[in-house]
Amino acid sequence: MNKIEHIGIAVKNLDVSNGIYERLLGVSSYKQEEVESEGVKTSFFQSGPNKIELLEAIREDSPIAKFIEKRGEGIHHIAFDVEDIVVEMERLRGEGFILLNEKPKKGADNKWVAFLHPKETNGVLIELCQDVK
């Protein structure tokens, strides 16, 4: 794993939260998009080398809607940048981690993504990210 790629934050209202993070970070969101497969709208902020992804549910059955219902708004996941997501997934399976994805899938911000089960990582949902070439 190369570095923390971003921190994902589950929010109830993306428009309201965009305003909060614009004031907090002093920058505007550089990208907003919908990821239908995950049932979310996302908004990305860059502050120095750090990225924040805000996630709002667009369906009641989305993982973000379920997360907010159970835990409320807050940090949802930490994403790590990897060179080769398939190799990293195989390595982590070999180390005994449970992956929530059999293979990488297309995520937000032009990334291939896969997730590790939080039961194996002290309750933290871990996302692996690789740039789509």
From TrEMBL:
GO molecular function annotation: methylmalonyl-CoA epimerase activity
Keyword flag Cell membrane: no
InterPro entries named among the record's database cross-references: Glyas_Bleomycin-R_OHBP_Dase (IPR029068), MeMalonyl-CoA_epimerase (IPR017515), MMCE/EMCE_epimerase (IPR051785), VOC_core (IPR037523)
EC number of the protein: 5.1.99.1
Keywords attached to this entry: Isomerase, Metal-binding
Residue ranges annotated for the VOC domain, each copy included: 3-131
PROSITE patterns (alphabetical): VOC
PANTHER family assigned: METHYLMALONYL-COA EPIMERASE, METHYLMALONYL-COA EPIMERASE, MITOCHONDRIAL
NCBIfam families: metmalonyl_epim
UniProt similarity note: Belongs to the methylmalonyl-CoA epimerase family.
Name of the protein this chain belongs to: Methylmalonyl-CoA epimerase
Organism the protein comes from: Flavobacterium jejuense
Gene name linked to the record: mce
